[in-house]
Structures are given as C-alpha cells and as structure tokens.
Amino acid sequence: MSFEFKDLSERKKLILQAIIDAHISGGEPVGSKYLTQNLPISISSATIRNEMAELEEMGLLEQPHTSAGRVPSEYGYRFYVNSLMKGYEMTMKEIDELNRLTKSKQEKLDHILESAAKLMGNMTNYTALAFKGNTPTTVVTQFKTMRMGVGKFLLVMMTSDENVQTKVINHGFEVTDEALSRLEAVLNKYLCNVDLEQVTLSLISEMERAVGLEAASLINPIVKGVYDVINQNAMGELKFQGVDRLLQYPEFSDIGRFRGLLGAIEKKDDILDIVSHSKKDEINVYIGSENSVDVMNNSTLIFRTITQGDKVVGAIGVIGPCRMDYSKVIATVDYLSRNIQQMMDNDKLLPDKESEDKK
Amino acid sequence: MSFEFKDLSERKKLILQAIIDAHISGGEPVGSKYLTQNLPISISSATIRNEMAELEEMGLLEQPHTSAGRVPSEYGYRFYVNSLMKGYEMTMKEIDELNRLTKSKQEKLDHILESAAKLMGNMTNYTALAFKGNTPTTVVTQFKTMRMGVGKFLLVMMTSDENVQTKVINHGFEVTDEALSRLEAVLNKYLCNVDLEQVTLSLISEMERAVGLEAASLINPIVKGVYDVINQNAMGELKFQGVDRLLQYPEFSDIGRFRGLLGAIEKKDDILDIVSHSKKDEINVYIGSENSVDVMNNSTLIFRTITQGDKVVGAIGVIGPCRMDYSKVIATVDYLSRNIQQMMDNDKLLPDKESEDKK
DNA sequence: GATTAGCACTTAAAGCGTTTGAGTGCTAAA
DNA sequence: TTTAGCACTCAAACGCTTTAAGTGCTAATC
C-alpha cells in the first residue's frame, strides 16, 4: 500500500500542498484562480490548470464535477501525509494543556488513556478514541480466599497481566476455616498458571477429591469464575468521546453515511480489529478506504499504541473525515502518546511511585 | 404535570386514537379522508374535520400547516398513554426471546441490565439504555491486606453496598508481616464505616502513629485509594445501545437536532439526572418537553427502575422520537423489568444460587 | 518548449413561477 | 347534528432560466 511519487516536480508539490491545505481548512474544492493568489511562486491560472490536470491524471486530485475545482483524493492525502506535510508547531497553550494532563499523575492506565483521548478530542475537534488492551493469554497466578461474613467468601485472583480480580462466592452452608484454606491450597496447586484448555473434567474431579467433601461443591462455580475472569475483555476495551463532533463536518451530513460510521463506532469490533493489528511504536494513519471497514471509507483513523515491553497495552487516537487537519492531529497524537509511553516506561523504573509522592 | 381530559366524548376518543395509531405507524400527518375509512364508526369527513378542529383547540392535535392533516401534540401522546392506549399483546416469539434472557442466569446485575437493554433495543427498534446505580453513601465495611510479591501488597475493601474493590499498593521498601497486619487492624479500626467527611488530618496522623513508623508512609496513599473507591461512579453508570437506530426516524433527519441529542447521550449526566430522580417501581414515561433537557424536546424516554429493598440499583428503558410505539415499548419494558426485578427478589431469598446449580 | 491570454463550454446551485394534490374551514342544505 | 359541496391554503414537485465558478483547449507570446 505504499506509493512512491518521487517524480513530482517541485512546482507540482507546491500546488498540491496549497490545494490540500486550502481544502482542509475551507472544505471547498479549490480552483486555479484561488491558487494564483495563494502560491509562493507566481504563475498563471492556465499553467496551474495544466498542472492540476496532470496531478489528477496521477490520481492525486479529483474533480467533483467538470466545473468544480479540485479536491485531494485519498492518495493525495496519503502523499501529503508521507512527504508533503509540514510539521505542526504546537502553541504554548496547547503544550501546556497536554503537559498538565501528563503531570497529573493519575494512577490507572485506562484513566490516563481516557483523559488523554478526551483532551485530544477537544483540542483537535474530532472524535477521540482510547483503547485499553488486555493480554489475550492471561492465566491466574495466585488465588486467595477471604471470609466475608456468613455464608460467603471472597475469591481473589491475581492474573499474569498484573491485574487483580475478585469474585464473591455464595455458599449456603458454613465452611470451616480449615476447609477454606485447603480450598485455597488446592486452587493454587491445580489452577495456577494453567491455561483454560488444560482444565479437564478429570482435573476438576481430582480437585474435588483433594479439597474434601465439605467444599467439593464449590469447585465448579469457582472454575466458572476463573473462566469468566480470563475471558473478560479478551479483546480489550475501546471507548470513544465526542462522537457528536463529527456531525459538524459536511462530509457527514449524509445521514446514511453517518449512520454507518456510528454503527461501527458502537459495535467497536471493526475498529478494535484495526487498532489491535496496527504497527507498534509509530503513528498509524488510515486514510479512507485504506482500512478495510467499508462503512469507514470516508473517515480517517489516526492513533498510536502504548506499549509495555513488547505488549500493546493501549492506544489513543482520533477519528474524523478524510479531510482532516493531519498536521495538527498527528502532532498532538504523537506528543501525547509519547508522553504517556514515557510515563509507562518510568513507572517501570520506579515501581514505588506511590510511596514517593506521599510527601 | 397530570392532565385530566374526562370531558372527551367517546367519538373524540375514537378519532384521537385512530389518528395517533395511524401516525405512529405511518409517520405522516393524518387527514379526515383517511379516517372515514379507518374508524369503527362511520361518519363523514366533514364531521371528522369538525371534531379534529375541536381536538386541536384542546391542545391534543397539531397541524404542521393549514393544508396538512393532523399530528398528535405532546399532550395528545400523553393522553394516549394515560387513558387511550390499548395494551400491547406480545407475540409468543417476543415472550420467548425475553424469557430466554431472564432464564440465562447471568450473575452480575450490570450484565443482566445490559443484555436486557440490548434485547429491548433490538425488539423495539429504538435506542436502549441501561442504568446501573450505586449507593451514593458508601462506606468501607472491611479492609484486608494481602501480600502480593516483592514490594507490593493488595488492599481489599468491602463496601456497604456489598461490592469488593481492590487496589494494589506499591511500596518500594519491604514491609514485615507484623507491620502489614498492624496496618490492617488500624485501617479497620479507624476507617471502617466512616464517612469521608469525618477523615480529618488529625485522624490521619493518629493512624500514622498507631501503625508505627515502618508503614506510616502508606497511610496517605491508602486514604486516597479509599476516597477513589467511594467516589467512583457515585452517580452510577449509564450505557446506551443502538444509538444509530435513531437515525432511521425522520424526526432526526435534522442533523442539528440529532447532534444535540447525541451530545446528551454522550455526556450522560442529564439523562442520568432524569433516571435517578424518577419514580420507583413504575414505568416512567417522559414525552418530549416533559423532561427538562431541552435538547431532548423531540425525544421520549421510557424506563423502569430495578430496586433492591428501597434502593434503586438499576434501570432499563429506551429512548426514541416522541412518535413512538408506546404500547409495544411500554409492554416490553414492563415485562422485562418486572422479570429482572423478580430475579433480584429471588436472589435475596436464595443466596446460595451458585452452589445450587452446580449439578 | 513552456507559459499565458482568451474564449467556448460545462455544470451544480440558486431562483422563480406553475402545477399538483392533499387537506382544510365554512356555509348551506338535509 | 350531520353532511355535501366548494372555495381556499400551502408544501412539495416540477420545469425553466439564470448565475457563477471553474474548466479545457487553442493560439499567441515569451
């Protein structure tokens, strides 16, 4: 999907850039007359028309109809993003806003991601997305039981992705302390670091034997609980913020088109799929039909993943029309995701963050 | 906000009902000619016109313009819902679908509510909402600590609404077992059943003294953790499903109007406000401007709360245009919410559900 | 050979008057 | 009280014209 356009004359580049810049900010097709007054070089409209015709032939521009100006094609945007676009200079105000967030030292990654996405959405005026990943191959690394009052106890499970999950187990009858700690020992012996596929019926009956008559009936619901914990969010969580902003762009004034996109945003799985198959540690830009979800053909998706080691633990980005302020969006996503990445990396070096800022 | 229309002649009722039924299913204004052929009684179009003029004078009907038919006003819908509407007879297929859900014995209330809402949305073709409430005045009833590996431990908090929350505490230094159990005891002594407002600085330093030097630095992050746990979701959670369905109704083809509604759905707090101030144990129907959110003036909100004792623990419902199939929606919401309510009530009687279905 | 002025051509969008048709309100008769 | 009949209203559809922005092409110019 990578295109090489090395054979573009300097002048064509200038013209293409001017067209795209003008179209991004104005939304209207751009004509030759406008360009005569908005190019660093001074050439006549006729020359510009000739150049534009050639750019169109190359697939970089499109014409809504014969008597309209030119509009960038998807390839045009792609070329712009790859080799034309000038880096966006963030204003002090913007940097301030972004820094305020990353300095706020929230603790949970998903909270950070969500507020980062929200901020990004506000600043760029597109819809923000925050992805919170989850290791697909989780196992429980440690079980604990904890009496909780009459007739129930709490099962605490630590998982290999360093999360803690709990589940209340109601048993109608009394369980002695010994039975409970035997149960804990059995769980730790048989189910720790065990993949779900390895849990067979015979293993379960072995556990039931090992745990003794008193608590045998608890094994089954517990195994089910483990199953739920591991399978929950196997695909990760994807949240959006500011979907209503899309409606301000004329490209979504077609209700049918917008409905499709809204559906994809609600269903999540298509976008989740794109995000989870993306490249790590770099900005991902999917312009129009570059993503395979046909209902997103008129949308652009820009995001960057956050990794921990070589695991993708999250992503933030925006979604908007193809006519997007790429320069600003990419700069913002980049800055913010890098900072969050850095926070992640630092956290690893300083695992005692919490005790540190006690004072 | 309650209106009495006892002085409506039987014929007027017939006409009004026919108009509303026709408009709900067809979406178009209803004229006198159509009614001559779709009324149980046979009267001329002129008579119908006279009656319609009077119904309009009473505020039950409206005319988009002089030469159009009549459309129900909000009061018209209100009257319809209160005293005109015929009960909807659910088909076997629908009852089956609903029963399949309530028999599936999911465990967590929010899961049940969400799938119920989803099903309701599918069946009625409007947008579903699921509300998971939260006791506003939660306190922690029990603390447990649990060593978790090197340099960190798990703080388990049971709250008065019978939830369990956990928080990983990273302390860079080693903490002895004695210190940890002393910490646990101190927490249970000072913070159990304590309202957040009662946690003063002097209480904190008292705790720091009581827990001893070794673990004193942990008190502060823990208190912060307690604060987070209690404040989290103080308002409850509100989820929507099938927002894109709204776009199929012509009343939302005005993009500006829909954008407003979409914004309210995303922001959630307005709708949350309505839901949390609603009447318990009955179907709540907010037609158009009956709710105070002006961006929802063209929408109707129908839901019913789920209670536990006298606490509202959830709600399910739908949101759609004022021109809604009230009869069907109300029947569906009612059936489903009652069944969920029953599940709640039964669960209370049989707390050992889980051990029961082990076989 | 590249550039440009000039001009005929194209086309969506806007404007405007007409027609259509559904539906009404009112009057007068039943 | 009901109804037939009729004049009236108005949005929507239709068709026609105008407008304006912008093009492609040709021939002249640099």
Describe this structure as you would to a colleague.
- The structure is a homodimer of 359-residue chains.
- Chain A is elongated and about 95 Å long.
- The first copy, chain A, has helices at 10-26, 32-36, 45-57, 74-84, 92-103, 109-124, 177-191, 201-211, 213-231, 255-267, 269-276, 326-349, 353-356, and strands at 61-62, 71-72, 127-132, 140-147, 152-159, 164-170, 237-241, 283-287, 299-308, 311-321.
- Chain A is an alpha+beta fold and 359 residues long.
- The model of chain A is unreliable at 349-359 (pLDDT under 50).
- In chain A, a hairpin with a 4-residue loop joins strand 5 (152-159) and strand 6 (164-170).
- In chain A, the strands form three sheets. The first copy, chain A, has a five-stranded antiparallel β-sheet with strand order 7-3-10-9-8, with helices on both faces.
- Chain A is built from 13 helices and ten strands.
- Chain A starts with 9 loop residues before the first helix and ends with a helix.
- In chain A, helix 7 (177-191) runs antiparallel to helix 8.
- At the A-B interface, strand 4, strand 5, strand 6, helix 9 and helix 10 of A face strand 4, strand 5, strand 6, helix 9 and helix 10 of B.
- Chain A binds a DNA duplex (30 and 30 nucleotides) through helix 3.
